[in-house]
Amino acid sequence: MKLIADKLQCRRGGRLVFADLSFAIASGEALAVTGRNGAGKSSLLRVIAGLVRLAGGTLGLEAGEADRSIGEQAHYVGHQDAAKPSLSVRENLKFWCAYLGSGGAPLDQALDAVGLGELDHLPAAYLSAGQKRRLSLARLVAVKRPIWLLDEPTSALDAPSQDRLAGIMRAHLADGGLILAATHAPLGLANARELALGQTA
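Predicted structure:
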């Protein structure tokens, strides 16, 4: 599988966020999207996920599922951790599995992978910011999708949780997945390439 971006352009609120942006990323590869605030890191991920309209250029996916959009073959983890406060940790993840599909690890294994197995009964309202982030990331393990679009994935995570996430990402790459991550911090992936964004309007 290969994701190919050619001369992408994004406008938000009438403002040019980035233009003439080209790159390619294949199975087993990770691309760290870096740049100062406002450079368009989050906007790029949202464009690929299909959440923001592409203003110019083309996005293509080789060897993907022809009857599904790129967004439908991707996990998008944004800044906000989508957890329903009244549902338990397990119920939240079960909801996302029902909504997004499954094919990944069982719920218990996914929660253990992010260190939440012993808190599965706890309402999400009682979770810390880091625990909510880990719950959001558990979707990556529980629902199998080849493309991961991660916006500041280490945000609010302590060092042990960052190590867990790095292990999860390495396993995904070894399984032929691909990762684009907007980040200000190291991802813990030795072979990750960098895409530096610098243009703001």
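Summary: The radius of gyration is 17 Å.
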